[in-house]
Amino acid sequence: MALIVHSFYRNARRLRNALKDIPSQEVDAKYEALKRAQETSRIIGRQALMYVAAFLITWIFGFAKFLWEETGNADTELLSVLPMIFQPLQGFFNLIIFVYHKVQTLRRADDDLTVAEALEKVFFFPSRMEDRATVSNLNM
After folding, report:
1. pTM to 2 decimal places
2. DSSP state string for 19-42
3. Confidence at 135, pLDDT banded by 50, 70, 90
4. Which of 22, 35, 84, 138 has the fewest CB atoms within 10 Å of its CB?
5. For residue 55, with 0-12 CB atoms within 10 Å meaning exposed, 13-18 middle and 19 or more buried, which class applies?
6. At what angle do helices 29-70 and 77-86 cross, to 10 degrees?
């Protein structure tokens, strides 16, 4: 995942440099395409960072407990409880990131849409969303 984040940030830097090379008076289709690609790269990079953070928050306590026990320390009651709290929450963290991305996509498409309206559309009316993924003839 870290390599994906690095790759997106490297591409974002290339896009930023390409946009700097275009004079400000030459706003054309190429400039708009680069601008859109830069925004998309920023969104994907942010989402990848959130997934990395969710993974780290979920598994850091189990790793710390393992290291604590390997060093010979026996009192690991708190480090035994924390993994039991955070590891089942990994799916919830992933859901939050997924919904955040959907809400941001909807709000970017419609500036007048509030967060509450976007959440309502995501959870209660997913068939009305324009960015539904279609696999074969199955709607997802």
Report:
1. 0.71
2. HHHS-TT---HHHHHHHHHHHHHH
3. very low
4. 138
5. middle
6. 150
